[in-house]
Amino acid sequence: MLWFRTPDKVYFKKGCMPVALDELRAVYGKKKCFIVTDTFLYKNGYTKPIEDKLDQMGIQHTCFYEVAPDPTLGCATKGAEAMRQFEPDCIIALGGGSAMDAGKIMWVMYEHPDADFMKMAMDFMDIRKRVYTFPKMGEKAFFIAIPTSSGTGSEVTPFAIITDEKTGTKYPLADYELMPNMAIIDADNMMNQPKGLTAASGIDVMTHALEAYVSIMATDYTDGLALKAIKNVFTYLPRAFEYGAADVEARVKMADAACLAGMAFANAFLGINHSLAHKLGAFHHLPHGVANAIILTEVMKFNAAAAPTKMGTFSQYQYPHALERYAEAARFAGIVGKDDQDTFDKLIAALEELKEKIGIKKTIKDYGVDEKYFLDTLDRMVEQAFDDQCTGANPRYPLMSEIKEIYLKAYYGK
Asked: In what residue span(s) does the Alcohol dehydrogenase iron-type/glycerol dehydrogenase GldA domain sit (predicted)?
């Protein structure tokens, strides 16, 4: 049996946020709302329209705005304690992936103070058949996710990552209990993203969509979402990067693309592009979207091999077909060659051109990562990337030596 899951409600269109929030009182009868965001968004007034709307509806509210990039267990613990004191029946996470991830973790800690993160973070082959049963969510509070960047798709995914700042251990949580109850995709919250964020988050969307499309878990239900996201990114990311808030259509279409890709990979999952990027970011502090971008075309070439060393685990097809799938995605985006291989080559060239347009450098080395330190950490990155939860859904199962080769090519540009 396969499945397709999203939040109960997904609202989208520029200016939709205040209308969607009406439901808190009119439909759900909520009385107390806890907002989770970061300091920048709070100080720059991003929470004010939400607070004004809550005031208008007579809903009590408070705001926790201490979320930092790569949110920590300490931050989540502090936020959850504030929740327990306030006792909200609604939580609104406003921000990028960090704020939404932190909000999800606080939600777990608020509803289940005795939750065991080690058990919740256990690896699994099938998200529906886990050794550890994730605690039931939503019994105390309704969870709303509102993104302010066009990238992570966390507003429609059942994933969250939290870091134990004392040990450096990252806890990747994945369970459909973590799916927000409502997502509000309002481009008004995304109009003023700086160019660097637009580029990094935008190419992250492309990576989500491409990995979901070639995943061993891809289905007809996820394919359409992934294809439309890929096309939107090719068409609108350069415009959003170049013109920012002046190109409203580009901002709206990139907001849509991020959410579409999020729904795709929430159900089809990702692949080794993210496995490698997770470790590259953790060891060398590259922004997640940038790490994905540098590795992207090398991973695609690896996946597209006609005779891979190893097939993906539990694939839904008899023979490798990543090359065919990449070619299908390219044609949908208007990139056409004389056959699948030629179309794939043109797709690789188009992605490299896209990265250049939005200021993404070509190699890991170009981002100032010290060569000696990179080589010293390489074996640890390889081992951890191999064990990453994303690796299992990749269409070609990698050997450690192959992961190492991809990292080296991405570092030196060979």
From this structure: 7-186
